[in-house]
Design a protein that fits this description.
- The chain has helices at residues 9-12, 14-29, 42-48, 70-87, 99-110, 136-140, 157-167, 185-194, 207-212, 248-259, 265-278, 281-303, 331-340, 368-372, 377-392, 397-413, and strands at 31-32, 59-60, 63-64, 91-93, 116-120, 142-146, 171-174, 198-202, 224-228, 239-243, 307-308, 317-321, 343-344, 346-348, 362-366.
- It folds into two domains: 46-278, Aspartate Aminotransferase, domain 2 (3-Layer(aba) Sandwich); 282-413, Aspartate Aminotransferase, domain 1 (Alpha-Beta Complex).
- It has 424 residues and is of the alpha/beta class.
- It binds D-serine.
- The site of D-serine has 3 residues, from loops.
C-alpha cells in the first residue's frame, strides 16, 4: 500500500499550495487595515499546524471521554492557566471554536430561552451574536438594543440605564465590532446591578489592548467575558469564555456538551502560545503602538476631510463616514477602489446609515496588522494620505497604479513572513 502520510504539501497538492502562496504574497504586498485581522506569529501557526490536531479530547482536563489524553490535558491546562493569568480571571474555557460560539455558550450558561438581553445594535457597531434577528441570538432571546447618540455618536450611559430600567434585562452585553471609543466597565456594572442583570463583556476586538493594559479592564466588573483570540490578541482563529468562579461549571457545561463536541486541541495549543506571547513586554509596547497608530491615522484622514465617527479613536480602529466628503461614494465602492490600490479595508455601516449593510456609507479601518509589521505614526500618516489620494482619484487608473507602487514599497520596507517565501 502506498504511503500517503509522509509526503509534504508540495508533493501532494500543488494546486492548494499555489493558492496558499498567492495569498501569502497578497498578505505581504498589501496593507491590510481590517481591524479584526492580524498576522499570527510563526510560533502560533506552528502549534496550530501540529500533530495535536489528530486527537479527540471531548471533555475537560482529567475528565475526558477518550483515552490517550494525558498530553491534551497538559496542553489545555497550560492554555487555561495562561488565560487566567493574562486576563486576571477566575476561570477560562478555551474550547470555543469562534466568537459566536463563545457568546452562545455564555448565553446558554446564564439564560433561558426567551430571557431579555440588552445589547448594542449591529448597525451602530454591535455584532451578529448580540441579537441580530436572523442569528441564533435574535431567534432564541428577547433582544432590546441600545444605540449610539445621534449627536455624539457615542453610547449614552443614561439611555442604557433607562432602557435597563424599562426592560429589566437578565443580561447586559457590552462590546462592539465597530466602535472607536473605550468602555468604562465600572459604569456598566452600576447599571447591571441597578436591575439585577448579569454583565457580559465581549472584548473580541479589544482583547489585546485589555491584556496589555491599554484599555480599561473588564475583569473586576463583569460576570462573563468572551473574546476571540485572533484579532488584536494576535493568536490563532478561535475564542474563549472567561468568568467568575460561580459561573465556571455552567460555562463549561454550556460549551461541552452543550454546544460543541471534540475541542480543536491544535487551536488550544496555539492559544496557549499566543497567551505566552501576550505576557511579554514587547506585546504591551505593540498594543500601545496600535492605539497611537490609530490616532495618527485618524488625525491625518480628518485633516484630509474624511470624517471619523465620534471624531477620532481611542482604540485600534476608526469608522469613516464617507457621506460627508463623497456623497455618491458607498463604503463598498470605496473598499473596492482601495483594494485596487493594494489597501485592504472593509465596508461598514455607520450609525443611522441611509444605505444597506451591503453597500454602506462607511469604511472601517484598523491598525493591528500594519503595527505588527513594525510601522509607526509616520507610516500611518503616509497610509492615510494614500487612502485620501485613492478615493480622490478613484476614477483614474494611473492614480491607483501610483498608490499601489507606494503601497508595495512600504510593504517591502516592513516585510512580513519573509521566511515563508514569496516576497520579491
Ligand atoms: N469578524 C468580526 C469583525 O470583523 O469585526 C465580526 O464577526
Amino acid at each position: 500500500m502506498e504511503n500517503l502520510i509522509d509526503r509534504p504539501l508540495h508533493e501532494v497538492d500543488l494546486e492548494l499550495l499555489e493558492i496558499t502562496l498567492q495569498d501569502l504574497e497578497r498578505q505581504q504586498h498589501c496593507l491590510t487595515l481590517i481591524p479584526s485581522e492580524n498576522y499570527a506569529s510563526i510560533a502560533v501557526m506552528e502549534a496550530q499546524g501540529s500533530i495535536l490536531a489528530n486527537k479527540y479530547a471531548e471533555g475537560y482536563p482529567e475528565a475526558r471521554y477518550y483515552n490517550g489524553c494525558q498530553f491534551m490535558d497538559s496542553v489545555e491546562s497550560l492554555a487555561i492557566e495562561r488565560a487566567k493569568q493574562l486576563f486576571g480571571v477566575d476561570h477560562a474555557n478555551v474550547q470555543p471554536h469562534a466568537g459566536t460560539q463563545a457568546n452562545m455558550a455564555a448565553y446558554h450558561a446564564l439564560l433561558e430561552a426567551g430571557d431579555t438581553i440588552l445589547s448594542l445594535k449591529l448597525d451602530h457597531g454591535g455584532h451578529l451574536s448580540h441579537g441580530l434577528k436572523q442569528n441564533f441570538s435574535g431567534r432564541y432571546y428577547n433582544i432590546v438594543h441600545y444605540g449610539v447618540d445621534p449627536d455624539t455618536e457615542r453610547i449614552d450611559m443614561n439611555t442604557v440605564g433607562e432602557l435597563a430600567e424599562q426592560h429589566r434585562p437578565k443580561l447586559i452585553v457590552v462590546g462592539a465590532t465597530a466602535y472607536p471609543r473605550q468602555f468604562d466597565f465600572a459604569e456598566w456594572r452600576v447599571i447591571a446591578d441597578s436591575v439585577n442583570a448579569y454583565l457580559l463583556a465581549d472584548i473580541a476586538h479589544i482583547a489585546g489592548l485589555v491584556a496589555a493594559g491599554v484599555h480599561p479592564d473588564p475583569a473586576p466588573h463583569c460576570d462573563v467575558i468572551t473574546t476571540t483570540t485572533h484579532k488584536t490578541l494576535r493568536g490563532p482563529r478561535g475564542a474563549m469564555v472567561m468568568c467568575r468562579q460561580e459561573f465556571a461549571e455552567a460555562v463549561d457545561r454550556a460549551v461541552f456538551p452543550g454546544l460543541q463536541g471534540g475541542p480543536f486541541m491544535h487551536s488550544i495549543a496555539a492559544k496557549a502560545v499566543a497567551f505566552k506571547e501576550a505576557m511579554e513586554p514587547a506585546f504591551k509596547e505593540y498594543q500601545a503602538q496600535v492605539v497611537e497608530n490609530a490616532q495618527a491615522m485618524a488625525d491625518t484622514l480628518k485633516s484630509n476631510g474624511l470624517r471619523p465617527i465620534t471624531g477620532g479613536t481611542e482604540n485600534h480602529l476608526m469608522l469613516i463616514d464617507l457621506s460627508t466628503s463623497y456623497e455618491k461614494l458607498s463604503g463598498r465602492q470605496a473598499a473596492d477602489h482601495l483594494e485596487d490600490a493594494g489597501i485592504i479595508v472593509n465596508k461598514n455601516t455607520i450609525p443611522f446609515d441611509k444605505r444597506s449593510a451591503v453597500t454602506t456609507s462607511g469604511i472601517r479601518l484598523g491598525t493591528p496588522m500594519v503595527t505588527t509589521r513594525g510601522m509607526r505614526e509616520s507610516e500611518m500618516r503616509t497610509i492615510a494620505e494614500l487612502i485620501s489620494e485613492t478615493l480622490e482619484g478613484r476614477r483614474n487608473s494611473e492614480v491607483k497604479k501610483r498608490v499601489k507602487a507606494k503601497v508595495s514599497e512600504l510593504s517591502r520596507q516592513f516585510p512580513i513572513y519573509e521566511d515563508l517565501r514569496p516576497v520579491s
